[in-house]
Amino acid sequence: MINNFNKARWILNNEGPGSLGKKTVKVINRKLGVSKTLLSPGEAYNYLSNPLFGVTQKDILKSSKSSAGSRMKPSSALWFVPYFDHVTFGGIYTIFRFIEEFANRGLKTTIVIFDNKYFDVEKMKRDVAKHFPGLADVEVINFNPGAQSVDELPERDIAFATIWMSAYLLLRYNQTKSKYYFVQDYEPLFYEAGSMYALAESTYRFGYTGIINTPGLLRAINQRHGMEGVSFIPAVDKRFYYPRPGPKSSGKKRIFFYARPNNPRNSFELGILTIKLLKERFGDSVEIVTAGSNWDEEVYGLKNQIINLGLLNSLQEVGDLYRSCDIGFVYMLSKHPSYQPFEFMACGMATVSNYNEDNLWLFKEGKNCLLAEPSPAAMAEKIITLIENEKLRKKIAAAGLKNINFNWQTELDKVWEYITS
User: Fold this and answer.
1) CA 145 distance to own-chain centroid
2) Which of 65, 105, 179, 193 has most Cβ atoms within 10 angstroms of its Cβ?
3) What's the 3-state SS for 188-211?
4) Which of 196, 201, 157 minimizes the C-alpha distance to 176?
């Protein structure tokens, strides 16, 4: 998921720090141990002016022609992957599940990191191998689009883009027989309708075959852009996400909110207003916990009103937190339900989210969750219903747990069969 941090990093790596000028502001995130560079809106020009994004119809036709031959069972694969700080976070974790699975099935695997020329390759390989031992010997290439040509990359039978910027690299990478687009959300919606939106949306018309995270997202992209492909359903890792072994001890009802102020699709502001309505109604008789990102609750008038855990350090911590809660609510405005509802349900929480037609393949109102219009009042209304109606809350939680029965191996097998048949 690219944000202002990633845009800044791209410019620093490919244009140099001078291109950012005096508008650059650095924020040190002590918990993560990384330096985040935030850009003013005007810096989008520096990002988009990179020659990488200057594609023509000729480039698209050349790409399609290079990978138009008959499909054969592959023996090698190349993945364009954005730089990451933590391999266990969200979409990156999912990407590496598939990379490892395909490597274990015999594919000679190359990972190309294209947006951070300063990272330590050997350290990254060690970090990856710690969680994905099947990739202990994987080839990792530190590729700098500003100084190197895609033609210099090794030839591989199949190749994958994993985020919209990497689709532009894949377009020029013609040393392959098949091109796939590993899509985990409708990424144009990460931006307002404008230049970034336009270039992200364009990638769905590059002629790739989609490997799409959830059937709802595949349907949306197919209907809008005609992309064909296969979908998979993300399973939860049962090592971390499972229900509490016994009934919750009596006490305050505990409510969790997935709070990410820098991700507009999670409607942080609406969530905060929902929390305030709940606190006005119940006061200290309910306990509200937030996690997902670091932010200052005092700025939003919630000091001493909530437990703000910020960014947790491990999946075990996340699972333990979810098991301690009765109700979880999350907003998701793009075309993917996010991982949180899967994890809420797997941990035995009653789940509340906003109406989103692209996610109704999973969300069943009144059965495995409650759905609300996005207004804070509507969301609070549904949460209040679950707080006050214990029978309904337990019914929703039990159905959610039952419905989250997806298995990673089944999903991996399905995608492997699709690309090798």
Assistant:
1) 24
2) 179
3) HHHCCCCHHHHHHHHHHHCCCEEE
4) 157
Find the Cα–Cα–Cα–Cα dihedral 397, 398, 399, 402, rounded to 10°.
Answer: 120
**211 near 179, Cβ under 8 Å?**
no
Residue 74's SS3 state is coil
**CA 26/CA 38 separation, integer angstroms:** 7
Residues in the chain: 421
β-bridge partners, 291: 258
* Number of neighbours of residue 49 by Cβ within 10 angstroms: 13
Domains and CATH numbers, the chain: 1-46 (no CATH), 74-234+406-421 (3.40.50.11090), 253-403 (3.40.50.2000)
Starting at the earlier edge strand, list the strands of the sheet with 350-354. 307-308, 286-291, 253-258, 327-330, 350-354, 370-372
Smallest CA-to-CA distance from 202 within 54, 325, 98 is with 54
C-beta pairs of 37-40 under 8 Å, 24+ apart in sequence: 37/4, 37/5, 37/8, 37/9, 37/12, 38/4, 38/5, 38/8, 39/4, 39/7, 39/8, 39/11
Beta-ladder partners of 254: 287
Question: Which DSSP category does 365 fall into?
Answer: B
Please tell me the distance from the alpha carbon of residue 215 to that of residue 233, in angstroms, as a whole number. Answer: 7
pLDDT tens digits in sequence order for the chain, 421 residues long: 334 445 444 444 444 433 333 333 333 232 223 333 334 556 678 888 888 999 999 999 999 998 887 677 899 999 999 999 889 888 999 999 999 999 999 999 999 999 998 999 999 999 999 999 999 999 999 999 988 999 999 999 999 999 999 999 999 999 999 999 999 999 999 888 889 999 999 999 999 999 999 999 999 999 999 999 999 999 999 999 999 987 766 689 999 999 999 888 899 999 999 999 999 999 999 999 999 999 999 999 999 999 999 989 888 999 999 999 999 999 999 999 989 999 999 999 999 999 999 999 999 999 999 999 999 999 999 999 999 999 999 999 999 999 999 999 999 999 999 999 8
